[in-house]
Amino acid sequence: MTERSLGFDTRKVRAGYDPAEHNYAISPPIYQTTAYDFKDVEYAQKLFAFEVAGNLYTRVGNPTVAVFEQRMAELDGAAGAIALGSGMAAISYTLLNLAEDGGRILSSPYLYGGSIDSFKKLYPKFGVHIDYAEHIHDPEKLDKEIRPDTKTIFIESISNPSASLLDLRAIADVAHRHGIPLVVDNTVATPYLLRPIEHGADLVVYSATKGLSGHGNIIAGLVLESGAFDWGTEKFPHFAEKHYTLRDHATGEYRSYLEVFPDAPFTTRIRFHYLNYFGAALGPFDAYLALIGIETLSERIAKQVSTAGKIAAWLDSRKDYVEWVRHPSLPDSPYHALAEKYFPNGAGGILAFGFKGDEAQRERFLNAVELLNYHVNIGDARTLIVDSPNNTHGELEPSEKDRADVPENLIRISAGLEDPQDLIDDLNRAFAASEDSGGPRDKS
Ligand SMILES: *Cc1c(COP(=O)(O)O)cnc(C)c1O
Q1: Mean pLDDT, the chain, as a whole number?
Q2: Predicted pLDDT of residue 444
Q3: Residue 333 — pLDDT band, cuts 50, 70, 90?
Q4: pLDDT on residue 49
Q5: Is residue 444 part of a domain?
Q6: Is 187 in the pocket of ligand 1 (CB under 6 A)?
């Protein structure tokens, strides 16, 4: 029986790891080493010629990190995976590996603040221009937004912070009609809620810092590839470029990533170009913590989805303090139909609401929250609350916040694993504490 035929929950605790290869240790060992002994000259030569699989140097590969990569590949149904030092490294290496010789990226407007800010400050300097899609919800019009030098479409499957959803299959079809790949940032969903490759995505990126590892104790990222995309076209000439370092040691002939790594050329090229030379490597201890986190992925995310739904419904009933609530579980959510189509296990553990009141009241509310932690992270075991426009999306200018649909009174909650009633009680108390000291405020 192959790993792939096993259920998701079995794979999340076992895939990519065979105790017989690690002194029969049940828990994956932490290989805290910089380098690996070559045994002899012949073995070293074979390693460098990619004739045998093995380890050279922990910047480009480590056995603990490899278990994490293999486990994620099997959870997402990917042909290749590479773990990196952060989610931002995963996004930047992916987009540069697509558009390093210049060109355009067509992006969803609903993104993590760090992505948006890097698109403005960094990419244009490298000759890569970002176009924000005006019709991300309308495939026919989206099709017309693709230009001759557009290299990819980039989206978040569940957006941070507003939990907006997109029609993945329709967007993948648009990309494929133009011979370009769809990249999905699947951080908020995790493979438990959504496996983008099953819906046509070619590349999946993660911040494993968030719900994937789930305990707010590491910074990590990943890139996965479907194995189905044709990288041999003129849009992506660098995959067919021949390199001395990939030469056939018997004949001396230079070879390309497509020739040497036909099954996973994209992530392999990230490994030996971007990871090798830009260097955002994931340490083995952090990979170990990610693996331990993934062992309880389904159980944690299922509870967080359920708690987020309860908090969203409660907030929705508190129109005295709440202008609007965004979570796909709400019956009047514009994303209700997409949630039913793509998210049978629920559409995520983050929700957002518009605080009703002025800035001073909002500040008093946030200061009064005790159980919910006020800080920037999501997917933690603890429930987190944050005023995104001032921090996670604080880099954005007002017009950029409008485009990203992050109103100034938005408050984001990332549901943790506590008793939901305790969280609701805490919010309830903080709402009361937000009142003007002079008595109840106008709630009309
Ligand atoms: C946090 C986050 C990132 C960045 O990940 P880091 O691990 O903090 O670098 C990227 N995308 C999304 C959706 C995120 O929430």
Answers
A1: 95
A2: 44
A3: very high
A4: 87
A5: no
A6: yes
Distance (Å) from CA 70 to ligand 1 centroid? 21
Residue 442 lies in a domain: no
Q: Answer whether 414 contacts ligand 1 (Cβ < 6 A).
A: no
Domain that holds residue 386: 298-433
Q: What's residue 438's pLDDT?
A: 47
117-157 tens-digit pLDDT: 999 999 999 999 999 999 999 999 999 999 999 999 999 99
Shared domain for 353 and 287, answered yes or no, is: no
Same domain, 225 and 348: no
End residue of a domain, out of 239, 271, 293: 293
Do both 185 and 54 map to the same domain? yes
Determine contact, residues 79/264, Cβ cutoff 8 Å. yes
Task: Please name the residue whose Cα sits nearest to atom 2 of ligand 1.
Answer: 207
Can you give the pLDDT at residue 2?
Answer: 53
Q: Mark which of 274, 293, 312 sits at the end of a domain.
A: 293
Q: Name the residue with the closest Cα to ligand 1, atom 7.
A: 87
Give dist(CA 317, CA 331) in Å, integer: 13
Query: Does residue 307 share a domain with residue 263?
Result: no
For the cut 90, the answer to whether the pLDDT of residue 7 exceeds it is yes
Tell me, yes or no, whether 41 lies in a domain.
yes
Whether residues 247 and 351 fall in one domain? no
Is pLDDT above 70 for 3? no
The per-residue pLDDT for 313 is 98
Cα 356 to averaged position of ligand 1 atoms, centre (Å): 28
73: in domain: yes
Residue among 86, 88, 217 to mutate when testing ligand 1 (max atoms within 8 A of CB): 88
Q: How much distance in Å is there from the Cα of 207 to the middle of ligand 1? A: 5
